[in-house]
Amino acid sequence: MNSKTITRRGAILSGAVGAALAGVLTPVAALAQKKPTAAALSPEALTAAVEKLLGAKAEAFGPAPINGLFEVIVNGNVYYVDATGTHIIDGHIVDIGTRSSLTAKRKLDFERANSPVFDSASLNFDDAIKTVYGKPTPGRVLVTFEDPRCGFCKKLSQDLAGIKDLVVYTFPVSFLGPQSRDLNEAIWCSPDRSAAWKAAMAGQPVAGGTKCADISALDRNMDLARKFRVTGTPTMYSATGQRIVGAVGAAAIEEALRAAS
User: Fold this and answer.
1) Domain 43-114 annotated CATH 2.40.300.10
2) Is there a contact between 79 and 54 (Cβ–Cβ < 8 Å)?
3) Residue 236 — φ and ψ, nearest 5°?
4) What pLDDT, in 10s, does the model give residues 56-102?
5) Which CATH class name applies to 123-260?
6) Alpha-carbon distance 240 to 259, whole Å?
């Protein structure tokens, strides 16, 4: 049996594998009959399918950069769905020629177009952690949204320590789950919040991390982040409202500060 070649309606398998599978092979034509091609859905139906899966309302719908796919934006994030609503893709479409993410560019463009104008005068700085590096100087101010467990935020902390004459107002958020919230509460309840934040950024224990009476600022900070469509950390704003996303490095931050000054 092992030496036989078995042919079954166009499928050719050799040896023991062929003998074992000969009784269970299904012709391609039969598969096509069993699984007919699904019909394309309307934009409304596709949007509803994505909303049901993600549990949130879609903010935008339109064609994707690849034929046959559609783009759906939910909570500021870009997803792709096929025309039948059978598959959803959570990932990046990359232009090989430019080696750039079309998804990331679309996400950034959407955020810029739909985010309210950042006005530092409208902020409640009592809800922020104030850290001063050197001498306070007009225009050399950063407002940041950061998660204490965010690796890029820790890199940002290292960069900020090397920038002179800067005031940073950190609005702590808990994007990375309950552990981030617990750490934020410990920092907020510390007698020296700035020192506690620096310790957390350095991976050190937070001093004085006991529960305190009022931690409502942490809830307001999450609402504030949603207002400005902050979906990732760190997200920064200069004094003039320039938005800076990610651990971009000290040089890029300094450039934004000079522009604001």
Assistant:
1) no
2) yes
3) -125, 155
4) 999 999 999 999 999 999 988 999 999 999 999 999 999 999 999 99
5) alpha beta
6) 8
